[in-house]
Design brief:
- The structure is a single chain.
- With 406 residues, the protein is α/β, with parallel strands linked by helices.
- It has nine helices and 16 strands.
- Helices cover 37% and strands 24% of the residues.
- The strands form four sheets. Strands 1-2-4-3-5-16-6-15 form an eight-stranded mixed β-sheet, with helices on both faces. Strands 10-12-8-13 form a four-stranded antiparallel β-sheet, with helices on one face.
- Helix 1 crosses helix 9 and helix 7 packs across helix 9.
- The structure holds nickel (II) ion.
- Nickel (II) ion binds next to loops.
């Protein structure tokens, strides 16, 4: 029994790679269709209908409008193992005018798949297509989550609210990464992305003549003190081994050049990796704002809104992905990512319901000096990544029931 298992595994891998290879022209067609028809967050109506159509044609049980424009497809296996594995891919595009010059360029002016979610959707569909052809041998069920509105960090919570995670034991996710060459996969143990929260600060001073500042309370000057105090306090009061970033991307205030401003509004994003850092942020920020404002007699309001938490990859699921990459593509396809990102990903919200892991799929062109980053109007993905991604996900799913202990 023990000696026959690896052989069975090898033949399953060969079958699965074969299936993916055969499907590849169709997958490239799907990807190009999606790329040419990008839709903004929360408006993925055509994409969702297209996804639902492909899933239905593979024999999956499909539910639409899960999380507004989200789609859920469930693939039934043999029912030997009751544990349910979910695979999440996102579908939305960005308000960016594409400048790549592809034959299958976006046909929607000002909208572009600049974050590779067209590739993600293709991977979800490709994996469903491959596994559906092997479902008679699949020990358990796989649920495919096609998520809307990732770019506005809303879609995951919409889908969860509509029950997409009900019964799910583990979840896998993927994001393309242009700085990793195509045909390679990045795996990161521990934190992959940061917690991202929204910050808004109002400072209320008192208006007055620009020539007589002592008779007023200058909200602009106090705002400048607040900004400086916050940035300095990060360096002096936060543990430097637990990274955090506070970026104020908006500031407005003042009525005229010679009138002292009575009001300033600032808004920004706060990123952190460590749960303890994350937990104390609202109080810490408010304390600094309060002390500066009280010193100079201003009133203030701090609105701190929790966004998405940090993606913390589960070690067992990560190992499942790592082994799938190594078995399918060899050691040279594997990159162990040494550092987390301070970017954010609402995949983290699924991890509040089930352990899981997300990997980075290389889409960089190995022969190019410059691979434009995600969210860039010239971002382009090497389609060789599609085969790597589909086989990695399919094989990780295939191995899931026997690799992860009950
Ligand atoms: Ni993205």
């Amino acid at each position: 029994m023990l000696s026959s298992a690896p052989q069975q595994t090898d033949s399953a891998l060969a079958e699965l790679k074969n299936l993916a290879q055969t499907l590849l022209p169709r997958l490239v067609e799907i990807r190009r269709h999606l790329h040419a028809h990008p839709e903004l967050s929360g408006q993925e109506y055509q994409t969702a209908a297209y996804v639902a159509g492909v899933l239905s044609s593979c024999g999956l049980h499909v539910e639409e409008a899960i999380g507004k424009t989200g789609v859920v497809g469930q693939l039934s296996g043999k029912g030997e193992d009751s544990r349910l594995l979910a695979i999440r891919t996102d579908m939305d595009a960005l308000p960016i005018q594409e400048m790549v010059g592809l034959a299958f360029a976006s046909r929607h002016p000002g909208v572009m798949h600049a974050c590779g979610h067209d590739i993600h959707t293709t991977l979800g569909l490709g994996t469903a297509m491959v596994l559906s052809q092997m479902s008679v041998k699949l020990p358990g069920d796989v649920r495919f989550l096609f998520q809307p509105a990732e770019e506005i960090a809303q879609g995951a919570s919409w889908m969860i609210q509509d029950g997409a995670m009900k019964g799910v034991n583990h979840i896998l996710g993927v994001h393309v990464f242009p700085s990793i060459p195509a045909r390679q996969v990045g795996i990161r143990y521990g934190a992959l992305t940061a917690a991202a929260d929204d910050l808004e600060i109002f400072i209320q001073g008192e208006s007055g003549h620009g020539a007589r500042p002592h008779e007023a309370i200058d909200a602009i000057w106090i705002a400048a003190q607040v900004i400086t105090a916050l940035q300095q306090a990060i360096s002096r009061t936060q543990n430097p081994l637990r990274p955090m970033v506070l970026s104020l991307g908006q500031i407005s205030g003042g009525r005229a050049p010679n009138v002292i401003a009575d009001q300033v509004r600032m808004a920004g994003t706060v990123r952190s990796l460590h749960p303890e850092t994350h937990a104390q942020l609202p109080e810490w920020i408010e304390g600094i704002v309060a002390s500066v404002c009280q010193t100079y007699g201003a009133k203030y309001e701090v609105n701190y809104r929790r966004g998405v938490p940090s993606v913390q990859n589960d070690a067992q699921l990560n190992k499942l992905l790592e082994n799938a990459v190594r078995d399918a593509w060899g050691e040279e396809a594997l990159q162990l990512i040494p550092e987390p990102s301070l970017g954010a990903e609402d995949f983290a919200l699924y991890l509040e319901h089930a352990p899981g892991a997300m990997f980075r799929l290389g889409t960089g062109f190995g022969d190019r000096q410059v691979n434009h980053p995600l969210h860039h109007p010239r971002f382009e993905a090497d389609e060789a990544a599609i085969l790597t991604g589909v086989v990695t996900l399919s094989y990780a799913a295939w191995q899931y029931w026997q690799s992860i202990p009950m």
